[in-house]
Design a protein that fits this description.
The protein has about 140 residues and is mainly alpha-helical. The protein has 5 helices and no strands.
Length: about 140
């Protein structure tokens, strides 16, 4: 089975169950951005980029899994822990690289071109007039 078909199969499993995709979406949030400060302008492309990053992550994770499995077999006699850790670091690393590569520039653009002018020209933070003393 080719790596591309594995990634497509994993994508179909996640896409077929929206609840599972919702629960896993936090894995694709960039670690460099505050989670509570993201709008849909940033969050949606970032999540999509995280899913796109799964394929390179799998490609990176397979050699890491082989090395990790070999090392834990030599040390402990059981390859499962090292292989799973290697694959995990590859997949999450690939996803985070892609998420941050897309999310950080979008977040910066949103802050500079939307939030900054909105805060500068907003009257919400203006000092209210003093209360009237006339009776």
């Amino acid at each position: 089975m080719r790596l591309g078909s594995i990634a497509v199969f994993a994508w179909l499993l996640i896409a077929a169950n929206p609840a599972r995709a919702y629960n896993l979406s936090h894995l694709f949030q960039p670690v460099l951005l505050p989670e509570e400060d993201q709008s849909e302008f940033v969050a949606i492309p970032t999540i999509i980029a995280g899913f796109v990053g799964l394929t390179p992550g799998v490609i990176i994770g397979i050699p890491l899994a082989v090395v990790g499995g070999t090392l834990t077999t030599l040390i402990e006699g059981d390859p499962s822990g090292g292989a799973a850790a290697g694959m995990f670091f590859g997949v999450v690393g690939g996803s985070q690289i892609f998420s941050n590569a897309v999310g950080v520039p979008l977040w910066t653009a949103e802050k500079v071109f939307y939030d900054l002018p909105e805060a500068a020209f907003s009257s919400e933070d203006a000092v209210p007039p003093p209360p009237s003393t006339a009776r």
